[in-house]
Design brief:
Layout: H1 4-9, E1 20-26, H2 37-52, H3 58-72, H4 75-78, E2 84-90, E3 93-99, E4 106-110, H5 116-123, E5 128-133, E6 138-143, E7 148-150, H6 161-165, E8 174-178, E9 186-190, H7 194-221, E10 225-228, H8 231-240, E11 246-251, H9 260-291, E12 295-296, H10 299-308, E13 311-317, E14 323-326, E15 333-335, E16 344-345, H11 346-356, E17 360-364, E18 375-379
Parallel strand pairs: 5-10, 10-11, 13-17
Antiparallel strand pairs: 1-2, 1-4, 2-3, 5-6, 6-7, 8-9, 12-18, 13-18, 14-15, 14-16
Helix pairs in contact: 2-3
Length: about 375
């Protein structure tokens, strides 16, 4: 599967030649619920084809939807779905993302990609990672309030102590002696320095893991990192860690001792207070900015400010879709129908504009949005 974080950070979704095709649908992990997923997928592809035919020749439309047809016939793919699916395509791009979040069914053809659901996943305050470790190996999980899945470690991240230390790993030194006379069992023990050597190897392993996780997983995602390990390993890792994304709480058992669902529940107990605090902080920040004339929920003002690069932080309602488009020269808004092949979600387009101009975007649950317009902006000036 394509790596969403890597593609997003690389700006892969920006500045593509239209038409840009965006398909989202909820999927299911298990049989028999997942039997309907490829059927729903084909129906959404049909919607996009009908929208494309309003403006483009049938031969061009056929070329654009061809990879979608191949995906719909991929039996192995549909047996290994998660909770949601996103597919983005243009003439020179086809990306497929399995999602841990259910997403609403949506098929949009527009001049730009519809990426609000992806922003929500990548920049939601509710995402986190779990690092499970002991002295010999590590595991990494990615989760949210509802789901947790083990993920593949990036190249350069050591999975085991042997990966990290290689030939520098201290060899075992054991000696055997008998105590208590004839008939007694032999007792195996180490040299006096063996325990110190094992502890030193564990510390070196944890340092290597800490550096690699920070570089390849924490910094690219900006997600909180929860530790899951035995208490003594938790203490040692915290002592040596320089990862600013490492949260203060943790799960004091190794993941091997827990089901994935129990690990998710315990990790979310650690993350949820920070999630709620971050949402409250964003809302308070917006209130303070509004009081100084540096915040608004008016879409027209926000669109003009987004085009001008004046928005520091944009809050977007997670569940609102407002069909429309923005003139990227003037910021003028035109409301329209999503079925039109040049119309996207207005809120999605605002988020993309802010990100392109180095602003921050947070997708906020409807019940915590500080405005009724679906959007709230904090201005730089």
């Amino acid at each position: 599967m394509d790596a969403l974080e890597k593609d997003f950070t690389a700006g892969l979704f920006h500045s593509k030649e239209p038409p840009c095709l965006s398909l989202y649908q909820p999927t299911h992990r298990f049989h028999p619920e997942n039997r309907q997923d490829p059927i729903r997928f084909k129906n959404l592809v049909k919607e996009m084809s009908e929208s494309l035919l309003q403006k483009y020749p049938s031969c061009d439309v056929s070329a654009l939807v061809k990879p979608f047809a191949a995906l719909s016939d991929d039996v192995g793919f549909w047996k290994n779905t998660l909770d949601g699916l996103a597919v983005l395509a243009s003439a020179d791009l086809f990306r497929v993302y399995r999602l841990q979040h259910p997403v609403k069914e949506l098929a949009i053809v527009a001049d730009t990609f519809h990426i609000k659901p992806l922003i929500r996943i990548l920049q939601s305050a509710g995402g986190y990672q779990v690092l499970g470790l002991d002295r010999q190996k590590i595991m990494l999980f990615k989760g949210n309030r509802d789901a947790l899945d083990e993920i593949e470690l990036a190249p350069g991240v050591p999975r085991t102590i042997t990966d990290a230390l290689g030939e520098e790993l201290t060899p075992p030194h054991l000696t055997v002696a008998s105590y208590g006379g004839v008939g007694k069992s032999a007792m195996v023990h180490g040299h006096g320095s063996k325990k110190d050597e094992v502890e030193l190897d564990a510390e070196r392993f944890f340092r290597a893991v800490d550096r690699a996780i920070l570089e390849h997983h924490s910094r690219p995602t900006n997600l909180p990192l929860v530790l899951a390990a035995l208490p003594e390993h938790l203490a040692l890792f915290r002592k040596i860690s320089h990862n600013p994304f490492l949260v203060s709480g943790g799960v004091d058992l190794h993941p091997d001792s827990l089901s994935v669902e129990e690990l998710r529940r315990r990790a979310w107990e650690v993350v949820e207070p920070q999630y709620l605090a971050r949402l409250d902080g964003l809302v308070e920040e917006f209130g303070a900015a509004s009081a100084r004339g540096l915040g608004t929920g008016e879409r027209a003002r926000i669109a003009e400010a987004a085009v001008a690069g004046r928005i520091e932080t944009l809050l977007i309602d997670a569940d609102r879709v407002i069909p429309g488009r923005i003139n990227h020269d003037t910021g003028e808004i035109t409301y329209d129908d999503l079925a039109h092949p040049e119309t996207d979600d207005l809120l999605d387009e605002l988020g993309e504009l802010v990100l392109q101009r180095s602003g921050k975007v947070a997708i906020v649950p409807t019940e915590r949005m500080p405005t009724q317009t679906g959007v709230a902006a904090i201005f730089r000036y």
